[in-house]
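Form 7-S
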Amino acid sequence: MSKWLKEKNYLALYQAYPQPINTMLMIETKEEFEDFLAQEHEIDTQCFWNYHAAAQGDCLMIGGYEGDVTEKVAAFLKSKLPAAAFAEIRSYLQGLHVDINDCDNLQEKLLPCTQRLLAHGYSLVINIDDVYCECAYFLTVKHIA
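Output:
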């Protein structure tokens, strides 16, 4: 996969990983991807890695207009953290709202969670992508030594 990105062999990449590319570009077919390449000539590598990680379940993709994402985020964190670490942050996982035009408190609300998780050897990382869409968040749980 890295080789295809390095060599800019995007059609091979698409054939192997159509789902993250379709989601990233908001397309549905190989023909639409070929049209995209004819106009843009390449895809953003970091953007691809974010969507690929989400497709693999390694991170949680949150659209910029999803509204209340409390349960979605809680379920993801519960699946990625040890029970004791999740129990310590569960009470902070309330009122998580994502709407980039209105009330968007995801980063602010997750900051205290990250601070508490450090004692358990974990950190929360939020990548923001606005390359092909107005905004998408990618939430990752990192284990730190």
